[in-house]
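Section 3.1: Structural characterization of target chains.
Under the original work plan, the team committed to producing a structural model for every single-chain target entering the pipeline before any wet-lab resources were allocated. The record below documents one such target. The sequence was received from the expression subgroup and is listed exactly as submitted; it comprises 299 residues.
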Amino acid sequence: MYKIEHIKDNQSDNIKLINTRNNSCAKIVLNDGASLQELCLNNTFIIEDLSPLKYKDTYASSILFPFANRIKDGTYTFNRKNYQFYINQKEENNALHGLVYNKTFKILDKNSSENEASIKLEYNEAKESKGFPYTYTIQLQYTLNENGLKLYVLVKNTDTKPFPFTLGWHPYFISDNLYDSTLTFDSDKKLILNEKMITTGIEDFKNNNNFEVKDKKLDDCFILNTNTIEFKTPSYNLEISASSSETFLQLYTPPKTNTIAIEPTTGVSDSFNNKMGLQVLESGKTYSIDWEIKVTSKK
């Protein structure tokens, strides 16, 4: 049996999707960019609060739009015009993770049944900003079912002008022992990043599809040949998939034990300048993508 709870207080506005049969739940915080702050599947927590790390520093499970990752110095050129994003990563002088991670989403629709629970959310940007002088609407639909969690994202250009964009998702996963956890993904190319984590080139990557995390300090991006990633831990195995043909994988280990960000994106750092994965959305047109998390087995 599925149900939906809406819990609101002075600090946060939360939606919970709950499956009472197998103790699965998903917690979405509407006023933190409708980010997924908790995910329990089949009585196993795979995403949870990163406290004492703060959301404003981690961007945990945030939706990254209109750009994923970073833009060098926050500047870019589009259609022969120069633009300047607000610099929200002062130490590297970069614009980081887009514009919707701290916005408040409203509820459009919610449904629960014997088979699933889903919530449809929306943020409407009606004001043109200096760095991104366009209007747009972004809708998110989270669906919890027996297989896991699906996130459907729909972006609509409500402006009269086309705009550039990439899209990403920034979930952090927990493991009982990250040292003994592995990732499986198909890639033979890796980005070269400078000291400010800006893409400067591409290099060959040899991994035989099996990436051991061990004690690596990660902030790396890989070009994927397929759209599926497997994460194997001592307590569970899961699969993360994307519907996009433009698929990159960003891996990051924060200063918190046994935690790793596994980020599917449609572009890379500084994509507004290097054009890797960059797309253009025409006036009145939409772009959509599905990301799905499935626990494939429990140890």
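The longest strand covers residues 286-298.
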